[in-house]
Amino acid sequence: MDLELEGKVALITGASGGIGAATARLLAAEGVDVIVHYNSSETRAKKLTNELGKKTFSIKADLSSESQVLEMFKEIEKKKGRIDILICNAAIWPEDYSEIEKMTLERWKHTMAIDLDSVFLCCRSFIQQLRKYDGESASIIIVGSTSAVFGAAGHADYAAAKAAISYGLTRSLKNEIINVARLGRVNAVCPGWTVSPMSEKYLDDEEGIKHILKTVPLKKIAESEDIANMIAVLASDKLSGHISGEIITIAGGMEGRVLHLPEEIDFSKAFKRKKRNS
Prior knowledge:
Helix content is 41%, strand content 14%. It is an alpha/beta fold. The chain has a single domain, classed as NAD(P)-binding Rossmann-like Domain (Rossmann fold, 3-Layer(aba) Sandwich). It starts with 8 loop residues before the first strand and ends in a 28-residue tail after the last strand.
């Protein structure tokens, strides 16, 4: 199906990774001029840019830096003019398990800077540049996480940042973007476990995967393309022109995470037993 995206310009943050790269490939195949953002993964970003062809270029920026985000948007505007689609995908997932009582303020702030502040800065610059150009349509797609929906013990910083962008920011921005683009839309996707460079080190743990899939009806891990497909649908005015402010979970029907195995539950303490009159 033609998504009618030909000639659009899209900025994908964190585009060198699994979901970002899959989205870049799909949009480029639909005729979109893709801007591949990266920070540290220059080799992967350059390789992807060369793969996608002459309408694509890559750009480096630390998105937690206000000055670098402003400079990035200035450079893009010089080369491409108006950006039609912003896909906020860049994020980190701290590997170390740290419950709140032991989490350092330094880690909390670092995660918030990259996973929350960066999205604010990019969305702000995107909307500011929209005001300079004619055009009724525009789209922001924010990549959240099922951690925003269900939480994530040991990674509350990540879950809090993803919840902030998926819910509060998405549903606030969808009421603001229309002031600069009458048909502008803002939506979020919340992927569950997805095959990507960030997750591949965990995918060899058979028992761990089985544990994760206990709450997933489809009993499988998503591919990056599964997420990219939904992002492309949301980017398309033809398919999603009347969809805004939605948070779409892409996790095979996940209902939550298993907290306790059966053998870990003490049945005698499962509920309070009332004494009955004889």
